[in-house]
User: Fold these one by one.
Assistant:
Number 1:
Amino acid sequence: MSSSSSDEVFEERFDEVFEEIFEDTFTNRVEAQTSNQRSRAYIERNREGGQDRLWNDYFSEDATFSSQIFRRRFRMNKDLFLRIVYGLSENFPFFQQRRYATGRFGLSALQKCTEAIRMLAYGSAADTVDEYHCTFLFT
């Protein structure tokens, strides 16, 4: 057997093995991604209802909580708070409400600012108030 023919045999066998490995790897990867997508559960968080409750509790004319309670919880008056919300939502994209890939709206500027200002008012880190964030906004 000549050197060139053994090189050709090696290359053909190498190509076959490479294609098998590549195909198996690709198939496994696609199956893993598909099974991950199927295993994710959707959790309804009722963000729209949270926005409505937040507004009704603190900012409507006949709010559930008085201005004094608002001031004690947020350490500022409502007018200043709403000016901050407006300023942040106008100047920083993070504080603007967006649609998710599913077409549903995320948290409103008011909801995002409420949590950020509460974290500042009480000196908490974001990961320590995550559960409280849901409780505060949605209960």
Note: The mean pLDDT is 79.
Number 2:
Amino acid sequence: MLTLGVDLAAADKRTAMAVIEWLPGRAVVREVVLDVSDARIVEASRRGDKIGLDCPLGWPEPFVALVTAHQASHVTVDDGGGAPWRRRLAYRQTDEVVRKETEIIPLSVAADRIGHAAFRCAGLLAMLAADGQDVDRCGDGKIVEVYPAAALNRWGLAHRGYKGRRQQAQHAELVTALCAAAPWLELGAFEALVRRSHDAFDSVVASLVARAAATGKASRPDDEQRVAARSEGWIALPTYPLAGLLDLAAA
């Protein structure tokens, strides 16, 4: 099995992709690249079994409805336009689930800068679908939405304070901690890059979560949640320890 992890930025710069091959008893990192284009992601997806995309796959349904209504006329403001109403506009159902399960608040695709990456993601999903890939925002197809910080939290690893020029030491410590928790993960020639770039590191984590999703070891929306997840997207949270990713490994 091959899994891809993509840390998607608004542009090619700062976009990273990792490819992991899963073999009996070990997982080998076959590729880690930076400054990745949409075309390269689409090409790589053809040989991958599951792709973890670190980017929101959609927008909150209430936000989409608000923009549509506002474009046509005037909106109906619930709760007097207070914080609860604004929160429903800003956060997707899956964001609230992640917040409840991990106490981590994902960035709002409707109100934070991550929306720029989501614009790109919408186009990328269209390209993948046109290429014949099974794009299901619930995660049931080849693509699954991932959130590295939440995954690291689930695996008992540090998930804050490792990004930025002044956090190189914390970043290096986190890579060391991941390697200790998953001694079967072979970074090989890409270890230096993963230690140097948190984008590269996040792409590796995204590929690990893709494996969890592919083997039924990540959360999936229930029937009620699936209604919104079809358009909003669904963040797959690992439900097993890291060691569980090796089970059912296929050559």
Note: The chain has a mean pLDDT of 94.
Number 3:
Amino acid sequence: MAEGSRGVVRRIGLVEDHESVALGFAAMLADQPDLELVGTAPTVSGLLEQVTDLDLAVLDLRLSDGSSPKSNVEQLRAAGLETLVFTGAENPYLLRSAARAGVLGVVRKSEPAAVVIEAIRVAAAGGQVASTEWAAAIDGDPELDDVGLSPRQLEVLELYASGEKLDRVARLTGLAPQTVNDYLQRIRQKYAEAGRPAPTKTDLYKRAVEDGWLPMPERSDVRRR
């Protein structure tokens, strides 16, 4: 790492496929003596082809190549890079996907430049970036009552609510069908106790989307349950 007027200069790479955002990002860091933007690309593979000796990768969640946050973060981590998410934070599923992959935090594109710069500075030094969006990604939307599902219950919910039949959920999880049914009854009970009843499969799907466990459907995505 180079030495700047504030000490160590952290090398930053940006994965962003909107040119205007990339230009604004570069402008933000231009007068920061301890942060150097050394590469920008619309995909993770494109960034890694440019440079690998980075201190931090800054990643937009929704890219036009259709890649998932999880696969992108895993690709960056395989290259030895930690990641900070830089996003509009409009999709709880994408945030949860990134959280599960182990990013250092989330910062909104709408935040003031000083907030974004400080988040980059903290993450580039290996620190966690605490934010409301990050807490929501890990713990669920703070405006929704947490139902406290266990990891096994979440696995059953994600499979069943996404459209799988009970017997197939049992096969995929290695559980007995009756055990899956018991889990579903308990999941419904927890949602009801939280004031968010889910008596039908469609209701369970809606709750899973609300809580960020399943992706929001595209407008053209017509689901029959």
Note: The radius of gyration is 20 Å.
